[in-house]
Every structure is written in C-alpha cells, then in structure tokens.
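2 proteins. here.
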Amino acid sequence: MTETASDIRLANYLRTRRKEEAGDIAVNALSGDASTRRYFRLIPKSGPTSIVALYPDPFDAVATPFYTVGQALIQMGLPVPRLLGQDGALGIYEQEDLGDRTLQHVLGESSASQKIDLYREAIDEIVMAQREAPKVPQRAVCFHTAFDIEKLSWELHYFEKHFLELHRRVDLSVEDRSKLAEGFHSLAAQIASWPRVLCHRDYHSRNLMQHHGRLYWIDYQDARMGPATYDLASLLRDSYVTLDEEFVQERAEEFRQKGAPDETRETFTQRFELMSIQRNLKALGTFGYMAVVRNNPVYLPYIPGTLAQVKRNLDRHPELASLNGVLRRHLEELK
C-alpha cells in the first residue's frame, strides 16, 4: 500500500518526538468529525495511549486557536485534555487520550437520575466558563471574535445553500429568497443584539467526554463570544440526543437561575428558543454539506430530529411567520 502524505508526516513525528519507542507504537485511525483534521490513537507497548490530531497544513504550534483557547480554558479551571506534544511544521498536536465515552454514549447507559446529574454537570461548566472568562488574560482569539450579525447570517445562508438547495434540491423562487433573507436578517440581528459571553460554539453530546468521572471539553478551538444561551441551545437542542421537553425546560430553568438570574423567565425562554432555531438551522447546513459536498452520509440520521426541533420553536414565534412559511412550503417535516 502506498504511503499517503499524512502517513509520512505521522511517521516523521514518531521518529522525532517518540523516537525511543517509535517502532513499538501501534497507530489506530479514528473516525473524524466534520473538519479536515484526521485523528489517530497511539498505543505504546507500555504506558498510556494518546491521541494525535493531524491538520492538513503546517501551523505555528503556540499561536493556533486550538492552543490559545485551550490555554485560556485551563486558566479558567475547565477540564480539557492535556497537550503532550506538538510539531507545527508537521501539522500535529498530541494530547491526552480521554477514551471513547462521549456524553452521547454515556447517556445510553444512564438511569434517569444519572442523566440529570450529567446535564447539570455540563450546564455548570457553561456557567463556569461564562463567569471565569473575564478574569483571564484576553489574548486568545476567542475573546476577539463574536457571533455578530454577519456570522449568524452567514450560517443561516449556509443552511439555505447546503441543506435546502444542494441536499433537498429545493428550487427557491425570487420571492422565497427574499423572504428567507428577511427572516434570516431579523433572527440574526435580534440574537446579535444580546449581551455576549464566552461560548464553546459546538457544545453538544459528542464534544463532551466522560473521563475519570468528569465531563471534559473537546473541539473547542472555534470558541468565540456570543449569547449566554448559545451553548445551552447546543446542549439541550442537540441533534444527536432526543430529550423530553419537560427535561429540557427544567434544565434550561436551572441554567437561568445559575447563569442568567437577572433575566425574566419570559425573556430567557424567548432567547433560548430563538437561539435554538439559529443553531439547529446551522447544524442542518453542516449535515447537508457533509452529505453532498463531502459525500459523507454519517449525519443524515440526525436530520429528522433536528427538523422537529426547528418546527417546535418556529411555530412558537409568530414574528418569524414569513420565514416559517417558506420553510414549511419546501420541507414536509415542518408542516
């Protein structure tokens, strides 16, 4: 079998960084995420395993968002995997192996009370990040980028292109596009006007790992400033886990009391639901992109549940009736 450029780079890393044991390390490829990174588990004959993230291009190992955001999270006391090695020229980070137990996996074997405890822990970590972020040096890129109206609108139009047009092959009329643009702008403008805190940005059940009895954060390099409800919407309106509506409302209220006690329940609920709409539409755009552009169908099973969440929240907001009307005409699941 011909070695790929990635194989060669990983072999070079092992020779230079783990040279004393390079020949005794087994390398297992892991399934990737929606990014262009590749992941491998290094299994030495003795000692702990580790995870290598192989990026497509070289980088400055101490200047990337992964490194700077990770350092900021550590300063906040948040649980992230330890960095064990790096080689920017080869496009490699090596980090602590947290195992394979994502929150999604753990929930499948948890009792009702354990499930509540897991979500309370995850919510407490959101609250901790929002509370501690202003106290650490603001050098990382996450403190200087935000979910502004441009970013939020871009994500909604990404949904329009990759989910509606490419995946569902919807033929949008000029009027449809105008109404979508108007609805997207209204939703994005409202969300962008809210106070901003630090957000993980992709805080769902596949990016939380249970390790040594605690939930660890992964895939945090795209963190940025945004609404207090952003990570909560990612967690409780998760495409990968179906949660009972009463459970969602109870956990959301617990978050409000801990993380947004100055907001009335009415204001908080409105913001949580609108944020959920934007977040779920963005996720659908990613699922469409992966299926059509990347020819990866792995996310297709999660589309029906995500659309169901979009329907629930859109139906509760008459101010988005025009947007809802266009989507209902073209998406059977929203009717």
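next one coming up
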Amino acid sequence: MTAQKMNAIISTAYGSAEVLQLNQVEKPVPKSDEVLIKVHATSVTNAHTAMRTGYPLFGRLFMGLLKPKMDISGTDFSGEIVAVGEDIKKYHVGDSVYGSTDLNGGSYAEYLTIKENDVFTLKPENYTHAQATAIIDGASTAYAFFKDAIDLKSEQKILINGASGSIGTAAVQIAKYFGAEVTGVCSTSNVSMVKTIGADHVIDYVKTDFTKGDKKYDIIFDTVGKSSFKKCRSILEKNGTYLTPVLTIRSLTDMILSKLFSTQKALFMASGLRDIKTKSREFTALNKLIEDGRLSPVIDRYYKLPQVPEAHRYVEKGHKKGNVVINVIEE
C-alpha cells in the first residue's frame, strides 16, 4: 500500500527562518500506544525561534548538536484524534485535544502522533483550537514557575517584565488567580491591554526604568530576559526572588552565586524539560482555570501552515502582543 502524504514544515539545519521549508512527507501511523491527531492549530513562540537557530549553543545538548534531531519542528498543538492504537484506553476517535510535544517536535504538520501518557488532554469546550494552542506555552511556563519554583502566595508583590508577551499575559492572569499584587512592565502601546487582563499596576518601560523605582517586590519574573538579577536586586525584598525562563550563562551564574552568597535568589527553570507526570498535572490545573473563565489567551496574529517562516520572522522582531497562532485548518 502506498504511504499517505501530508504537508509539513521541515527544518534539517539550524539557521534563519529560510531553513523552514514546506514539504510533503509521509503521514504518521500510530503505534499501539499512540493516537493520531489531525492538527487544527499550532503556535510560534520565542522558544521556537531559539530552537530553530540552535542558540544558546548549550541548548543543542537536548535539540541536536549539529542539526535538529527532529525534521518537523513545532511543539504546541490543538486538534482532533482521528485514529487510536490498539492499547489506547483513555481517548477515542473524535476527541478534541491539546498539548505539547516538547523536544519531540512535530506540530508544524497536518498530522502528528503522540503517546497516550504524554503531555496532552481534552480541550476545554469553551476554547477554540486556536485559543487552546495559544495558551499552552505561556500558561504552562508561568504556572510551573509560580507553583514549582516559588509557590506564589496571596498578597505577595510580583513584577512581571514582558507582561504583554505570551508568557507575560498568562503570568499576569495566573498571578492574580493566586491572589498576588501584580505589576506589569510593557511598552506604551500595550499598557491598556495589560491592565485589561488584570494587572494592578503597569509600568511603561519607554518612560520609566522599573529597576530604579522605590517600590520593592517579593518576586520579579523577567519573562523576556531583558533585565538581570544584578539590575533588579535594589527593588527586590531582602528574601525576594528573581525568576527567568531565559537560559543564558549570566542567568546560570546568578543562580549559583545567589544560592551560595545571598538571601535574594535568582532562579532559572527549563519548564519543558520536567517530567511528564508533573507537566500533565499542570495541564489539569490549567484546564480548571480555563473552564472557570480565569485564563484567556491574547492572540496577536494568525498565519497558515505555509506561512510558518513569516511567522517566525515576525516573532523575532520582539514586538508581538501575546501569541502567534498557525491555523493549520481554518476554524
């Protein structure tokens, strides 16, 4: 029997957005412990552009030393199960699901396979596929930091730098859910939006250097890695914590030195590299927030599958509001 084909974005080398090429490849066939998902929507984030370039270089220890381990990139997805392996018990054909393949990639395609116990779950009915894929990166990262890294408490004061991005917009909402007093930092054009999603205070970084203010914070969450632990120490409480999901030599050095010599801490966490059980548990918690109307994605732009390179170039400009969605199937 001739193998069926599908459209996918292939990248066989690290580099600029031009390495992302639309090709026809074999449609995957699910193994006994896998489901086959027809992808309706996927996304492009800063993490995806970094995975495409292979920088920072130590990230290649996980992604592939000289070229990407996986030809088909993309991690977040939302879609419909169209086939199940013989050992699948939890899911059925026709289920709408969303999730993340992390380092396994594969979401920049019309179909993907994923194991039953990997990081995905039933899509909330009050979300479209575009909304579901848009919320994954930011919400899962923010929730991981707030629950696993620091256990964010009610009435703590938190400053979120990059509050208008994919992680920042989710972080503002999740921090408010936990009862924190939230200050968001963003550009002039995004001040109104950041207020709308729940920030108690907003600092326009075009007009004000937040690191030179008088107010002190229990937590500073630098979602974009544009500041540093050193710059933020003067506005951190004595036992305050500086968080960032951006991996650099500086952030790793700050984490080690602060643990040894300071009551103020710098923490980095690669949330996507944690164990599947932990990440799946977080998806369950996020579903509850979504279903209760406590978490809404901010979507900046929509692209189609052949436009993935264009979407990557837009994200790399650093001006997106919230999330960029790839509609593999128009809703």
